Amino acid sequence: MANSDSGDSMLDRLVRILDAFDAENPTLSVGALARRARVPRATTYRLVDELVGHGLLAREREGTLRLGLRLWELANRSSAARDLREVAMPFMEDVNQLVRQSIQLAILHDDEVLVIERLSRPGSVVNQASVAGRMPVHRTSMGMALLAFSPFPVREGYLERHGTVISALHVDLRRELAHIRLNGYATFDGFIDSESTGASVPVLDAHGHALAVLAVVVPRGSESLPAAVMALRTASRGISRALRA
């Protein structure tokens, strides 16, 4: 697509418009969308009309916009994510019943944790993860488990790109990641929610690298944490074997 006067292509602008929606901003006015996407208002109006026409955006009764169902349909055609979810689901259901807390499945994507499935549980502790939501790598047990079991260039690349923000929270992240690899799982107390502890176990490929991660959140100080970790480890091994098969 042709570039604009500012040098960005029309595709760049379309992606920024779609990317402007997040968990905190599921609906936006056209004006707010233009500001968040850094696209001129007149151009935003025109692109919004086209995106609504294709079902990629939906217009609410009061005039605000949200992501359209067509995006969900397209995303669910992704064979890699679909296959992983389908294989993992029976194991996730078992852990969900045993631990009695919400459980989620996530992957490492664009230097963030991307949640691709979650099973909720009535009465479970507050859990900030949501399907299709993104979470910070170095502030979550999911991200730490994924990073610890990523190939060496992936780990080092992340550390180089995010060294400043990492140092505000971690004294020696490389040492922490080595400890996670030794234990086979990661736990974090209160980094996202002060009253909870996250526990995560990687789903490994044949080379010992993380394909995904299984995680639960339990009340902080809960005596059920060791049992939750054991259940996650059993489930992750089962998913790994099923994916290889």
Throw out a few tags for this protein:
6-stranded antiparallel β-sheet, 19% strand, WH_DNA-bd_sf, Arc Repressor Mutant, subunit A, Beta-Lactamase, 245 residues, GAF-like_dom_sf
CATH superfamily of the largest domain, by name, is: GAF domain
The H-and-E topology, N to C, reads as: HHHEEHHEEEHHHHEEEH
Helix proportion: 40-55%
At CATH's second level, what is the architecture of the largest domain?
A: 2-Layer Sandwich
List the quaternary state of the chains: single chain
Mean pLDDT: 90
Indicate how many domains the architecture comprises. Answer: 2
CATH C-level class of the largest domain is Alpha Beta
Distance between the termini: 42 Å
Query: What fraction strand?
Result: 15-25%
Low-confidence stretches: none
Shape: globular
Sequence of strands across the biggest β-sheet: 5-4-3-8-7-6
Q: What would the CATH topology of the largest domain be?
A: Beta-Lactamase
